[in-house]
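=== RUN LOG ===
request id: a7f3
mode: sequence -> structure
chains: 1
length: 453
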Amino acid sequence: MKLRPYQQQLIDDTRFQLQLGRKKVLIVLPTGGGKTVCFSHIAESASKKGNRVCVLVHRAELLDQASRSMPVRHGLIAAGRSMDLSHSVQIASVQTLARRLHQLPKDFFQLLIVDEAHHTTAGTWAKVVEHFDSARLIGVTATPIRLDGRGLGEHYESMVVGPSAQWLTENGFLSQAKVLAPPGIQTSGLKKRMGDFDMKQAEGLLQEGQAMGDCLTHYRQHLNGQTAIAFCCSVAHSQAVAGLFQANGVAAASIDGKMDVNRRRSLLASLGRGEIKVLTSCALIGEGVDVPSVGGCILLRPTSSVGLHLQMIGRCLRVSPGKDRAVILDHVGNTLRLGHHLEHREWTLDGEQKAKREKCTSVKVCPKCFAAMSSQASECEECGHRFVVERRELKTVAGTLQELEVEKTQKKQKRIDQGKARTLDELIALGKSRGYKYPVAWARKIYSSRGSK
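=== RESULT ===
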């Protein structure tokens, strides 16, 4: 298996973490960077040393993909199959393995590899990982972040981060991409459920508003004849969008999780061959599915999840012969809310506070061609439109500067010091330093009032 230099470095860094005694390591590499190649190489190396390895995936498409990439003979643990545990490497559907844990000793595997590892904290995944708690754990993901803000540090001790999407693009490992954000829907009025937008409400706005028709218009303008994946709010929405394209002479189909697995495989294969030009989906191919020839993504599903945002865009970023660059048509403003896919991101194993997760990003849209870019750009990279900087004139307001009264300053400082004293002992010490006659009584009064609040 031929590794790219950065993939080899990533594997070497992971081995070093294991040598340091870290049993649980998370590998982070942008979508299209070759995570499957990396963990397949790790699995092969571990099996050659006599270890039993299990690769965990969560959908049939990802199980097929991991199986195709695995360079050694391996078993498959999936619904409708009997287990052949004679092979040292097993690729398992996490749902199926969770139902069969009673058939496997807790020390059966020496290494667990979790694909799309941002799911590790979810119930079924956590159940499997905890069952094989004596095994070393390696997770791989492009987006080590959860919508609820929980950190992956619950399951991983260290993180190895590969090159950024910007570096991979500049060095030809990912496709150059044009991001367009034409006017779509206003998400300010959308309700939220489970931390993300209410998809039923979003679906209604999209089918009633201009975005429904504009997705066809902009596809013809920017992707005409190329393949694309459209991400929708629901199965009904996905079917409606596919119907819109079909009615206007564009070969399209809808795919969803309730379909027969073979039918889903057939549709993805048709997309890869270019027989289907637009494949519409709801929550099925936002992660992991590798169809390098796909030329564009049509975003019709608003989200407040950075991880989902980057995963959707990543479906069209893989390099493929004959593909000059990818086109991302963002009709729901995800890029404006969550940022450009090439912007630098500081990943961490720690959780994030809500205020930090919802911090606005620095992206602006060209009013002429709708290209999205950094707010620092002075000229549109697509059409050459020059952004005019608004001049702000200083206004002179009549008034007199006054010296701040010392007494007010001292009172303010006292309040600050009192706020810093968090425990009863700290309050007592503060009362003594101020020379209070009864510092203990004063401290208890303050502490008690805080408790009542």
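=== NOTES ===
Residues 297 and 313 are 6 Å apart (CA to CA).
Confidence is low (pLDDT under 50) at residues 399-404.
=== END ===
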